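Researcher: Quick test of sequence recovery. Tokens follow.
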């Protein structure tokens, strides 16, 4: 009997703990900032959407002023202009796959990515919630920490 009661208590506690780390929802990108310098590596008007649900996520960010030029027009450009256009066009960050989360760690398992070298990779990030904000952060090898802030929609 005592083992049954302990099992029920542990099962209930596990359910409560999992509810606390539920990150499911849709979030819009607010900012990405180097916490040491206060500078963002991206344009201030960069847009993004992060959707997490049922153990899967999809994330994409891009600059909204990114131009679209018809193929025929691109073909008529000089090589230099084509390269400049493609650099602008490729300024996008997007990947999707499965995710896990505990109280402070978010793990992304990239199944699809804009960067083919990232397909099948795993990213382990720290996070915290601040009211309706999800703050995901990572640290580069040089020690700089970046806070990536998302607002729940």
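Model:
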């Amino acid at each position: 009997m005592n083992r049954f009661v302990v099992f029920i208590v542990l099962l209930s506690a596990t359910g409560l703990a999992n509810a606390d780390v539920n990150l499911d929802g849709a979030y819009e990108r607010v900012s990405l900032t180097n916490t040491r310098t206060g500078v963002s590596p991206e344009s201030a008007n960069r847009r993004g959407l992060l959707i997490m649900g049922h153990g899967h996520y999809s994330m994409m960010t891009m600059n909204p002023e990114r131009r679209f030029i018809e193929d025929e027009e691109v073909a008529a450009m000089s090589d230099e202009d084509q390269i400049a256009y493609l650099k602008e066009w490729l300024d996008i960050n997007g990947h999707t796959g499965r995710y896990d989360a505990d109280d402070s760690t978010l793990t992304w398992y990239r199944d699809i990515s804009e960067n083919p070298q990232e397909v099948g990779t795993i990213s382990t990030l720290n996070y915290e919630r601040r009211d309706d904000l999800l703050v995901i952060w990572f640290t580069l090898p040089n020690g700089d920490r970046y806070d990536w802030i998302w607002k729940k929609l």
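The longest strand covers residues 25-34.
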